[in-house]
Amino acid sequence: MKIISIALVLVTLALPCFADNAIEIHQPWARPSAPGAPAAGFMLILNRTGSADTLLDVSGSFAKRIELHQSLSVDGVMKMVHQRKGVSIPAGGELLLKPGSYHLMFMGLAQPFVVGEAYAVTLSFDQAGVIEVLVPVIAVEHGTDMAH
Ligand SMILES: [Cu+2]
Question: Which fold has domain 2-136?
Fold first, then answer.
């Protein structure tokens, strides 16, 4: 499992994600997770096309459910809001998924996320269709661990 994961990471790194007039996914990553807990994933999505697009749905065989969340501070309390209608990305714009903001929530994991592994995630866009991205699990220091 681990060897296969590393091989997939290398293949992904060897393929530049540049393409004109397309949706580009950059620097996908996820945090390690505790047993039974959900994991959070992050990435930068660039819309290099001339029209707005919407990230509608996210799926992966390793999780029962993957939701697109936005962390918001409501009266000083961090809350996660499920983006049920997806999140739109303006023409020529970007959507940054990062801690404390938009993120993918991986729920019902088959097994906890461990550093060094990588998981194939399928992103479904309204215009661009389906884009597969490999999300590596990366160690994060203490102190940056905001309420995803
Ligand atoms: Cu969340």
Answer: Immunoglobulin-like (2.60.40)
